[in-house]
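Training component of the fellowship. As part of building independent skills, the fellow (R.M.) carried out the full modelling exercise for a liganded target. The chosen ligand was S-adenosylmethionine. The inputs are recorded below so that the supervisory panel can assess the work.
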Amino acid sequence: TDSDTADEAVRATCDDATICKRFATSKGYWKDPYIQYFTRSVGERKAPEINRGYYARVQGVNHLLDAFIRKAECDCQVINFGAGLDTTFWRLKDENLLPRKFFEVDFPTVVARKIHNIKTKPPLSKPIIETHSTDSLLLDAHSLDSDRYCIIGADLRDISNLDEKLKKFQLNSELPTLLLSECVLVYMTPSQSSNLVHWAAETFHTAMFINYEQKERFLKTGWEHADALDMMTIYSMLPQDDVARIERLEFLDEKELLQQLLQHYSICWATKDKLNLGNAQICF
Ligand code: SAM
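Fellow's submitted model of the complex:
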């Protein structure tokens, strides 16, 4: 059907993100020793504007994510919606910032591919096995469940099914929870994405939702506090010694093009803080 074809195109977007991130890391914009296991080649050259855009996106999201985990002293959980082939679990493990449990949700076919890579690449599977205490590790074609890392195949537009699956894998609604959607809500209708954001606000009393998207798309249903900054502003607020470093990697003569590109995107974040962790103070 038409909608199957449309969903297939959406699923393919995770490869675009991974290829662009791999290219930027191959140029030295940031380090990601795990992304090579999710895409076969470095791919063709990307314009410096694109690389700087990905740099700002990855550093901006990581900044907020890490700040939340630190405030909760890792006594929290993370849910990455539409995670695709994202490598954040491995980064957090290496940086001693693993939450109690890290969940990812994506379409079953994307999840199956990710799990296949994990199964066949020891640098990916080792950290999962190391952080698992019993012999009950679940690793089948469409789901992975270990003590600290869980990957679920589900459609984010079907909230009751999503809720059921997350609970089946021991999601704890009492724990401080970081929800992340990076270029995901844009593929749903406004009412579908609003349902997801609303579900999150209803389910957790202490939480933060980080959404990276085109500027217009943010919804703050049921959240106590919300902020949004366009990516040009975030770029100018990232640690400037590192920004100076990446600006030396590739020559860029048209500064205006970068500005125009980054101004179309934003990171929005919303918080709820019954436990008074200080989530509302998280910023750049
Ligand atoms: N978040 C990852 C990143 O930034 O690298 C991947 C972004 S990719 C552009 C969008 C991802 O969202 C894809 O992996 C796609 O399969 C997933 N996605 C979109 N709509 C979805 C839905 N309704 N249910 C589950 N996953 C969905």
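The panel noted the following from the submitted structure. The two ends are 44 Å apart (CA to CA). The pocket of S-adenosylmethionine is lined by residues 10-11, 13-14, 17, 82-84, 86, 106-107, 110, 155-157, 182-184, 187-188 (CB under 6 Å).
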